[in-house]
Amino acid sequence: MMKYKKWWLVALGISLVLTGCQPGQKAQKEVAMGRYLEESLCFQGEDDSVQSYQRVYFENLKGEAEAIEQDFAREKDIFRCWQKDQDGTWKQADTALSNALNQSGLTAVTAVEKDKTLNKIYVIGFKYNAAQNSMGEPMGMPCILEMKEGAVLQEISTEFNKEVPTKFIVHISNGKMITLDTEGDSLKEYDIESGRKIREMAEDVKDFVVLQDKLYLLKNGKNTLLQCYDIASGEKENESQLPDEIRLSNMVAAEDQKGVYLVSQSGIYYLQQVGQIPEKVLDGNLCNLPQYSRPQLCQGIFYIDQLQYVYHQELPTVPDRKVTIVTVEDNYSLKQLVARYRKENPESSIEYITMAPYVGESDKTNAQRNSEAVQKLNTQIMTGAVPDILLLDDLPVDTYIEKNVLGDISELITETEKDNSYYEQLINAYEKEGKIYAVPLGFKIFKAVGEKTFLKEGFDLSKLAAYQRQHPDEQAVQFSEMETGELVKLMSSFYKDKLIHENGSVDQKTMKAFLEDIKAVLPSQDPNACNYEGEPVIIAAQKKQLKAALKEISTAQDLQELFYAREQMRDGMITSHIAGKDACLQPIQIMGLSIKGTKNEEAKKFMQYALTQKRFNNKDLYFFYGLSVEKKENTTYLSGQQKDYNDMMEKDEGVILPTIKDGILTNVYLHDWYTEETETYLKQLEQEQVIRPVNEKVAEIIQQEAASYFEGSTTSQQAAEAIKEKIDLYLSEQNLK
Amino acid sequence: MNKLKKWKGLLWVLPSLAGVSLFYICPFVQGMWYCFTTGVTKRQFTGMKNFVSLFHNNAYQLAVKNTTLIIGASVLLLCLLGLILALILEKNFKKYKGLQFWLLLPMAVPAASLLLLWKDLFEQGGLLGSCLGVRTDFLSCNETPLVIIGMILWKNTGYNVLLVLSSLMLLPPEYEEAARLEGAGSWQVARFVKIPQLVPMLFFTVIISIYNSFKISREIYLLKGEYPHKSIYLLQHYMSNNFLGLNYEMLTTAAFTLYTVIFILIFMGARWQQHYTEQML
To answer: What pTM was estimated for this model as a whole?
Structure first.
């Protein structure tokens, strides 16, 4: 027994040591200081105008930081040059180099590299020549120029570029050049003078960095690999697998040539050699790192797209004020909101979590992943790990309200409503028993665009179906590019009141007719008629006008594009009269504060911030631009400025709609021809009613049974019966009946 | 010394006990707590309200009815078929090599792999429909429970046969020999000699059959989703759907009720089996 007692004493002693309890000492918590801070637009145009450009940074022959900026929207003088002042601000530089670039015939510059051994600078870019590609468009041929003193650009041998367009110069030293070719992302070494290919080094290279005499390659496949090559021998020396969170990253060499930075959406990481665990130097939750942009590091500052990341010693490394935001699918607008909030509140840490990030799969697979993501989130909620803020678009809002997952945000609304800037019907869309549990930050306006004769009494599915049955060879209606299931879901929302009674039971007869009407319309759909992404819009037009209209419509929820589309339709009209209702607003970007979030002051502050940002639901029609670059066609659209529509009207600038017409980028200006129409439309929005989508589960049941009917497996009667049975079962099961 | 032995024994069992507590006992106790409370993030005590609400729920009543019918019929048939086949195969078991393999094969095949087979057999335009000359989807009609029972029998009968067979092999041959000497036929030997001795194993077979029958909900879910035809809407569907709808109290209440019913049935069965065996002896 004595031996037994000693054993317990020993165990107790060990546990005390492990917990760090030492008598006579207080535990001291040291706060680590210093982190990178995201700063917007390192370059500011003189007129604050919205610009579209790309930028390449380099160190010039004098050792100063310089940048070549190229503006693809300009018809001439594509290039501008900027230099960094001693005080750290960037100013437009001497025009000699920009003149030289603009006169060189270059249409784009992809990289500028310095051969430090020979003190030479090479510019790699593209020039148009007479040859054309299979689409009849002029081809851009790569070329390399040497930048000499006095801003002289001399083209050097391009023999090795003739067949394989070169993407990047990887390394230049002693008259030899390693390039990353676009074909198979392969790495090859050439002699600059003769253009002779010396060797092939590697393939499938995502990104690269040169450190002293070593070449580091990043390969993305099933796993992300970092490989180290010796440049002289071309032999691979080492390889390691990087953590999953660093997937889809880009690399940049440390300026002291002792390490490598890896930039991904999850953060910026540093490592000195292959095999080391990367050290996180910037948490992706503290900024909005773009996903696919190649970073550049110049004089201690990271440049990624149009943003710069500067190190601030005075900021805590890990902010103590934290907010968690969860969304099912990635939401661009919300990310921009988070990015702006972070900039204005550097002491806050906003963790933005996407439960089901889009990875390019089919709609059906994405829907399944979304469903699994919702289940995962529900499990987390059950365990108490409730996020502070939820984006409720793909989530069961009514269930969350019912189960007290969401908190009351009425007092936040009251603060926002002081200037009466919100549409009342949207604010109250998720009100229950006098409390508001969620607010949509935006809305979609369902409209029909088409011929007056067809639409003057508004859009009606039964009439459309009747017309289609009589004219089976004609195409009277073209819906936007969406799967049949989505169309059924959309129509169910419009006709919800007729399909489902107030007590929740299904009107079987109406459901049967509804399914038959949709089936009558489906065969007329031409999947090739639409070529745009965007929210569904209903379009009714004669065939000859239809294709002309559809080519020009890109996003129907954007009013200015809608007006532009209307311009293309002869005797056209816009109507919001759908399914017998005067107008329909569908709420989107529905944000809610969880019960846990109501106790987090930072979360409430962010929610307030989100509500006060000017959005579509604000009575001033703002066109909200994000803070990163959006690429459409071959054009880069820069963001960073908000434009007040009314403000633009006053200055007679009009609304600018960049678009591609006949293969050429043009701008369409919508001036005050549409002012009166806009005014009318804005007034109409005051009366529009909010149409909340049909319950997610009910929509799923209708979609599944409708699919069987459309395939011919069941009759409309059987499908309607099955829908009624299942919905009744669901409502009874969930005690909703 | 005995106390020391007891403590030492407890220490040896402690890791396993910790695991069982963490993954079974604690969640069970927490589930029981959920039965008497409501709410997701913040729980409030509601007494027996959840049970009352459960028993009045139409969907639950339907699920109980379907589950009782399907599981009850399956268990009965599984045990009967298992016993009959075991008695038939007893004499020739050793003669046919590989019989064990074929009896266990249905159980070894993954459920997801069998889905295609079930669909080809029973869906609209499948083999069964073609043979009968009808265009019925046998997985979504009032006759679907028969199909489900058939699936359960196909999958689990072989296992039950092996269980009963193994017990039959171990029976002392003297009783059978004595009965045959007295002039008993095969049926009389089976009924009065073998089956009474098999009662403990048969009871075990009933428990295993209940367990295996409940697993069919996985196939039904994979075939027909969260809301199948009303004739095959089982308790598992009710519980799973309530989980997705954040109705944890309904889920745990239904689960606890099911547990209680099965516990009582098995307890009573065990007592009866014990009493019967003692009487036999």
So the answer is: 0.68
Average pLDDT along chain B: 90
> Which residues between 346 and 405 in chain A have a beta carbon less than 8 angstroms from any beta carbon of chain B?
374-375, 378, 381-382, 384, 386, 396, 399-400, 403-405
The CA dihedral of A145, A148, A154, A156, to the nearest 10 degrees, is: -50
3 state DSSP class of A432 = strand
Alpha helix positions (H), A345-405: 363-383, 397-402
- Per the CB < 8 Å rule, is A735 touching B247? yes
Rounded Cα distance, A681 and A687, in Å: 10
Exposure string for A102-128, b = 16+ CB within 10 A, e = fewer: bebebbbbbbbbbbeeeebbbbbbbbe
**Residue B198 predicted with pLDDT over 80:** yes
Distance CA A256, CA A34 (A): 19
Beta strands at A214-220 and A224-230: parallel, antiparallel or unpaired: antiparallel
Euclidean distance between CA atoms A525 and A484, whole angstroms: 10
Of A182-191, A315-324, A641-650, B202-211, give the range with the top mean pLDDT.
Answer: B202-211
> How many angstroms separate the Cα of A354 from the Cα of each of A243, A324, A345, A357?
19, 11, 22, 6
> B277 CB near a chain A CB, below 8 Å?
no
DSSP state of A557: T
- Tell me how far apart the alpha carbons of residues A72 and A51 are, in angstroms, rounded to a whole number: 9
In sequence order, what E strands does chain B have? 37-38, 44-45
Q: Which residues pair with A67 in a beta bridge?
A: A57, A82
Q: How confident is the model at residue A635 (pLDDT cuts 50, 70, 90)?
A: very low
Q: Which two tokens stand for residue A310?
A: 């500067």
The closest CB to that of A701, out of B58, B140, B227, belongs to B227
Task: Quote the CA–CA distance of A244 and A308 in Å, as a whole number.
Answer: 25
User: What strand order describes the sheet that includes A572-575?
Assistant: A477-479, A538-540, A448-451, A572-575
Question: Which pLDDT score, from 0 to 100, does residue A583 have?
Answer: 54
The ipTM value here is 0.87
pLDDT score, position A659: 41
Q: Tokens for B196?
A: 């009474």
Tens digits of per-residue pLDDT, A388-433? 999 998 788 888 888 889 999 988 877 665 555 566 777 788 888 9
Residues B186 and B84: beta-carbon distance below 8 Å: no
- Count of alpha carbons within 13 Å of A448, Cβ hemisphere only? 27
Interchain CB distance below 8 Å, B246 and A378: yes
Q: Which residue does chain B place closest to A594, by CA atoms?
A: B41
